[in-house]
Specification:
Strand order of the largest sheet: 7-10-11-12-13-14-15-16
Helix content: 25-40%
Radius of gyration: 29 Å
Strand content: 15-25%
Shape: globular
Structural class: alpha/beta
Bound molecules: 4-O-methyl-alpha-D-glucopyranuronic acid
Distance between the termini: 50 Å
Largest sheet: 8 strands, parallel, barrel
Amino acid sequence: MVHRLNIGILGLLLLGSLGLETVRANTGQDAWLRYAPLESGTLKKYDSMPASLIVLGDSAVLRSAQEEMMRGVKGMTGKTLRAGKSGRERAIVLGTYAAIRAAAPALVLPSSLGPDGFWLVSAKFRGFDSLIITSLTERGVLYGAFALLSKVARGENIDPLNEEQQPYAPIRWVDQWDNLSGTIERGYAGPSIFFEKGSVRADLTRAGEYARLLASIGINGCTINNVNADPRIIDDSFLPQLARVADVFRSWGVQLAVSVDLSSPKVLGNLDGFDPLDLRVIEYWGSKVDKIYRQIPDFGGFVVKADSEGRSGPSSYGRTPADAANVIARALNPHGGILFYRAFVYDHHLDWRNPKNDRARAAYDIFHPLDGKFDDNVIIQIKYGPIDFQAREPVSPLFGGLEKTNQGIELQITQEYTGQQRHLVFLPTMWKEILDFDFRINDGGTPVKDLVAGKKFRRPAGAFVGVANVGMNPNWLGHPLALANLYGFGRLAWDPNLSTKTFAEEWTRLTFGNDSVVTKTITAMLLTSWRTYENYTGPLGAQTLTDITGSHYGPGIESSERNGWGQWHRADHEGIGMDRTVETGTGFTGQYPPAIRDLYESLQATPDDLLLFFHHVPYTYRLHSGNTVIQHIYDSHYEGAEQAADFVLQWKSLEHRVPDGLYTDVLARLEYQAGHAIVWRDAICNWFLRTSGIPDAKGRVGNYPDRIEAEAMQLKGYTAMDVTPWENASGGKGIECLKLSTCTASFHFGRTAGIYDMDVQYFDQNNGESTFRIFVANRQINEWVASDRLPATKPGGDSSTRHRIHRLALRLGDEIRIEGIPDGEERAPLDYVELHESTE
Ligand code: GCV
């Protein structure tokens, strides 16, 4: 919000030298806080910025704000801010409102400003035109400092300035699923920054840097261990180690929290059980919490996963989640701590034969009847959809089912079901749709963002939680562009009304500088990437058709069926989809308020994107788009794979505009993604072709004129193998070298002479590093080692990888020979070769 003030406009101070923007070598470590030198035109805008800095007060958080201002201004403008002399010169002034007011009584804070909000204002301070960054809290001052620096980095005008920002929800946390061993469940960027070999790391530098990143986007808490919690995390002997993490978080205004196991009173406390209503258990939690706060006075609280996926829980004693949550919450309450109780509670031994069974119902069935029974410092943490972080799900009905209970939304920054940071998927596009989704309760506007921020039903608390799982990888998440998801989570948690384009652009500028071509290209890639991924992985709300009992990565269409996990799509010869209607199905639609229930209950009214989540339809059913379901499956997968290929071209247009190392790294990832999108496309299209028996009207599926199957080549040493499931290899087969030495597969080029691009589809397992060599007419033209660390120990959809050899001159009759040299368990496995006339 911008106020008109008559309290003065900042004068301008010449900062001097105009520099050219240098594209800084970028490992990604600094993420969006690079503070790279501004290009001369942009730099000029800040000529008049005060050259001194006044900090009112002395605390760890204010010192962080001060150091950040110094660092940022120095990096971007080359100037060192000097310590300002109060009442003698213009300055940037940092301080809480109480401190500012004492020094400048004329300054009146906007009445709407609450905790953590900040005000950036050009105003007189002790007689001099200054730039004031203030807030009710020190943390808010820090957020304001970051906001100002972000503006400068993006070349925004800051003279005059009068801007007030207020976070949408009071609690904006990230969760890490780090194990004490140092591994991270569903983490794709290296080992834990917190733990190593059962203890907190000796060196917590990265943890401190992470807290800085989090603070820069307004995140105020972090749960550092896996929700599948190791009870030892709150063992008395472990508490001093937790205190060390809290120490590095504190100066960035980030509260430490941990996940706890409900059986702790038994496992750690030597009780004979953990019945939440047993007085000894109540006492256990009380004394444990007191001990924690003695060592960590600003401790944030606990997260609980119970009665879910094998975790212990109150159901063992016939108690409810409210019984369990309240006991712990009451221990936390006197200290101001919070208890997050996860709604991800379900039976993973469901009988799949019963058409009325439905995992999607679980959270609402369990928690809605308990509405109003939870204490005020309990927050029910609800995953955005009723299943589990799929590429597309409807919004969980539980958000609309809790009116007298605090709730928070759990989003997943780590890309468990969405490409594991090997595929570019900008998730805020999905999150924004979810947050804007209107439950239309009592016909009033009831968007999810207002429910989870506690606004709609005037709850004392509300929360945005993002499962981040950053690791020791220098760029935090593995894929350099995946950092946009962490940034986007923070921005949406701060202000869910921001457009995704706004903060996608912000992130791009902060990360890559202000080159408009770069900003435009990367923003466009980000904004289309979720739909692209959905197109080639999971159509029409059938969920991500991945290997759900294993890696959650590559295609695994039948893995969800005929087991108790309940992620069924129920595709058979006739049709596909889960009937979740009240009338004929599982009754799930009845969990939504009437207006939404009616929408999803009706086959005609259900949006195409979610059709198969709610209805079972024949393949010939016509969508609103006019296409049949089966043709949509074919078309969307071809479209998705083409869009993924187009990302490569878009990125290539940025060569020499982004730092070289970063350019090459991202290019390799996008090329891999384009290849893997084809693996997905072919697996899904062929599976549905075989299952439905309905051919692709465009004749693409099952016809690959440019493809030479490895098993059809002349083989020396190599033997043909069946790949399981069959759809994850072309023709269901590949070849493997069972010898200890080199095997060869060859064929003769039978097409018109010309320049061709050659794609070699091979399987890159993580239990060996095979070498491949390509010869044309006996001349070696290429060699590579299959050394990626994909989540696969066998040939299949997780390991299938494409290697492209560009612009190969081929003549009719040329022998093309592939030599495969196996290594370890990886038998130099190959699927096929494709030759396309080169267009480059
Ligand atoms: C931490 C999914 C994931 C699990 C995760 C669980 C949860 O099932 O695959 O790895 O466990 O969700 O959110 O608790």
